Amino acid sequence: MTAAGRADAAEVLRLLDERGRTLAVAESLTGGLVAAELTGVPGASRTFRGSVTAYATALKHELLGVDAALLAARGAVDAQVAREMAEGVRDRLGADWGAATTGVAGPDPQDGQPVGTVFVAVAGPGGAVGAALRLAGDRTEIRRATVAAVFELLTSELRKTRPEKSPEAKDREEHGGKGCLQP
C-alpha cells in the first residue's frame, strides 16, 4: 500500500463515515487494489461493505448485472460498462455508493482498446458518473493510477453531498433540547 493511496482511502472513508453512508467496489483491471487500500485503513469496516473482483468479462454480467448485449457489442473496456459495474455492486452488496474500475493495464490491447485505456465510475443516490482515462506507464503504474483516479472521483462526488447530522444534534432540533431557543 502506498502512502498516497492510504491517504486517499482514508479520506474516502472519512467522508462516507461523516455522511453515514457505505461503499462497495467492483474491480476489473485493479484486481482488488482498491479494496486493499480501503481495508488497509483502520476502521474501514464502519463504511466499507465489500468488493467484487470481476476480472473475467462474463462475471461482469453474472455477478454485477452488466448488460450482456453491451458487453458483447463493446467489450468490457467501456464507459457504460464501468457505470453499470458501479451500479451493480452498489445494488448487490447493499451499499449507498458503488465504485468501479475497468480497462487495459497491459501488456496487450484488449477489446480493441490500447494499453492505458481505463474507465472508472461511481454510483450513488443521484445516479452514476464516470471518467475516461488515458494512462501511461507499465502495468503496475496504470493500476496504481486507476486506484488514485477512482478515489479522486469518489471523493469529488461525496463532497457534493451533505453530512448527516449526529443523532444528538437531530434530537435537539426535533425536541427542543439544550441549546435551542423556544418561544
Description:
It is a single chain. The protein has seven helices and five strands. It is α/β, with parallel strands linked by helices and 183 residues long. It has a single domain (3-175), classed as Maf protein. The radius of gyration is 18 Å and the shape is globular. The protein starts with a helix and ends in an 8-residue tail after the last helix.
Biggest sheet strand line-up:
2-1-3-4-5
CATH superfamily: CinA-like
CATH class: Alpha Beta
- Annotation field: number of helices: 7
Number of strands: 5
CATH second-level architecture: Alpha-Beta Complex
The mean pLDDT is: 90
Short description:
This protein has helices at residues 3-19, 33-39, 57-62, 68-74, 79-92, 139-159, 167-175; strands at residues 23-27, 48-53, 97-103, 117-124, 127-134. By secondary structure, the protein is of the alpha/beta class.
What's the structural blueprint in terms of helices and strands?
Blueprint: H1 3-19, E1 23-27, H2 33-39, E2 48-53, H3 57-62, H4 68-74, H5 79-92, E3 97-103, E4 117-124, E5 127-134, H6 139-159, H7 167-175
Parallel strand pairs: 1-2, 1-3
Antiparallel strand pairs: 3-4, 4-5
Helix pairs in contact: 1-6
